[in-house]
Amino acid sequence: MNAPFNLTEPAATNAHEFSVSELSRSVKRSIEDQFGQVRVRGEIGGFRGRHSSGHCYFSLKDSEATLDAVVWRSAYSKLSIPPEEGLEVVATGRLTTFARKSSYQLVVEQLEPAGVGALMKLLEERRKKLAAEGLFDEDRKRPLPTHPRVIGVVTSPTGAVIRDILHRVSERFPSHVVVWPVRVQGETSGAEVANAVAGFSGAYGGPRPDVIIVARGGGSVEDLWGYNDEAVVRAVAASPIPVVSAVGHETDWTLIDHAADKRAPTPTGAAEMVVPVRADCLATLADRARRLDTAMATLSESRRGALRLLARGLPPLDALLQMPRQRLDLASDKLTGALFRTVSLARQRYAGTAGRLSPSLAARPLAQARDHAEALTGRLDRAMDASLREASRQAASLDGRLGPHLLARPIGEARSRLSAASDRADRAMARLNADRRQRWQTASKLLAAVSYTAVLDRGFALVRRADDSPIRRASDIGSGDALQLQFADARVSVVEAGGAPRPATQPAKAAAPKKPSRRAAKKNPDQTELF
């Protein structure tokens, strides 16, 4: 019969017991030591944009496995391409564990597209996105200026592109060219080009260009990738200055070509596009001046002929004036008779009116007016008497109420307030004087304590040169120097033993300013500036 199994007795073993934390840390060290730097190829999945903390979380997957990945906020701005859902990439980073979930993840430090196919897929998706926003619409593109005074060029200052552009501009129509130096490839090229395009339209400290050329030579898709950057496209679309894209050769297309106002097949073609040929402009101007002179002569001759035809159709001057003269004669004859008739009628109306007038008609109104005036004069006299009596009564009443005793009380109160204010002012001045006297005494004691005269009173002496400059070290005294020793009560002049007094040292002349180098003063022959 088998013995019963005792649950309270542990099984005998030599295995080491780990805590959960110890085991997690051990696994973490093992994985990080073995996979400290890895490159993983896979498709991005589960990406929902940046977290509020600035970190990015997604997964890399293939047909058989999935690997969690994270991009910390500090590393996100250094990525050559941002993570996007469904994009196949090669991620570089280190493998680590996440103990809280008993899982492992890849801390991504760099992202690269997995080949040209992935780049073209990303480029097409970005093109559709920006086109849906209207950044490539033809109706928003502007014409280039015919004769630009200032041309801004965004390119490398050391490459062949800028030399070709400067040569073509000076050959066709010499203009002022301002170069904004940028990197034309690499991780930072897109940001530098976007800043340059936006900087030309801002207050960068130089002349504002009339047109901007963004140029570089040809290259592979990876070399031109900076000009497919979303920030570059948005900067070109938002630029108030017309932009000409001259990136790569004629077969190379980037997103900046769609957003620019004009696309040039080559950088040299861009220079030919923005400036005309000066000789052609002069020839066109001369031809138009000749055509204008011919047109003006033709117009003057045709107008002169039309004027002559119209003049033939007009009647003679005497015939035009015959009828008006006849009407003037008739009107003059009528005017004389009408004047005599008007005077006669006026004289008759005057005589009739004078006959109806007589002195008796005006006597009654005059009498009525005189009576009315006398009545008003009587009323005025009575009103004046009543006003004088009322004024006298009011004056007598006020005279009884006025007297010196009414002012005695206000004067006494004012005198009391003045006395109290004077006492307060005296006390305030006494406190102010006492406070200032105490501060003066304190300052005097402090001055006496820090003054070197107190040191002289203790038996020391101050050594000076003849010009009263102090001497701090014995090594500063030369043989035969004239010195002054100041004691507490007086000064004593002495000469250092060993020779006659030396003359006072002349101050050193100021160094003449260096002339600017001839190379620095030489002007740029092609009027090119760097910012």
Order of helices and strands: HEEEHEEHEHEHEHEHEHHHHHHEEEHE
* Number of helical segments with 4 or more residues: 14
Rg on CA atoms, Å: 55 Å
Number of strands: 14
**Helix fraction by DSSP (H/I, runs of at least 4):** 40-55%
Structural class: alpha/beta
CATH fold label of the domain at 142-280: Rossmann fold
Strand order of the largest sheet: 10-9-8-6-7-14
Shape: extended
The CATH class name of the domain at 142-280 reads Alpha Beta
Distance between the termini: 100 Å
Q: Can you name the CATH architecture of the domain at 142-280?
A: 3-Layer(aba) Sandwich
Mean pLDDT: 81
Q: Which regions have little confidence, pLDDT < 50, spanning 5+ residues?
A: 1-8, 504-531
Largest sheet: 6 strands, parallel
Report the sheet-strand fraction: 15-25%
CATH superfamily of the domain at 142-280: Response regulator
Compose a concise summary of this entry.
This protein has 531 residues and is an alpha/beta fold. It contains 14 helices and 14 strands. Among the domains are: 20-114, OB fold (Dihydrolipoamide Acetyltransferase, E2P) (Beta Barrel); 142-280, 3-Layer(aba) Sandwich (Rossmann fold).
Topology, please?
Layout lengths: L19 H15 L3 E8 L10 E6 L4 E6 L1 H4 L11 E11 L4 E11 L2 H17 L17 E6 L4 H13 L3 E6 L7 H12 L10 E6 L13 H9 L4 E5 L7 H5 L2 E2 L3 H8 L3 H36 L3 H40 L2 H43 L3 H46 L1 H6 L4 E4 L16 E5 L4 E5 L22 H4 L6 E3 L1
Parallel strand pairs: 3-5, 6-7, 6-8, 7-14, 8-9, 9-10
Antiparallel strand pairs: 1-2, 1-4, 2-3, 4-5, 11-12, 12-13
Helix pairs in contact: 4-8, 5-6
Relevant terms:
14 strands, OB fold (Dihydrolipoamide Acetyltransferase, E2P), Rossmann fold, disordered N terminus, 5-stranded mixed barrel, single chain, alpha/beta, 6-stranded parallel β-sheet, 531 residues, 16% strand, disordered C terminus, extended
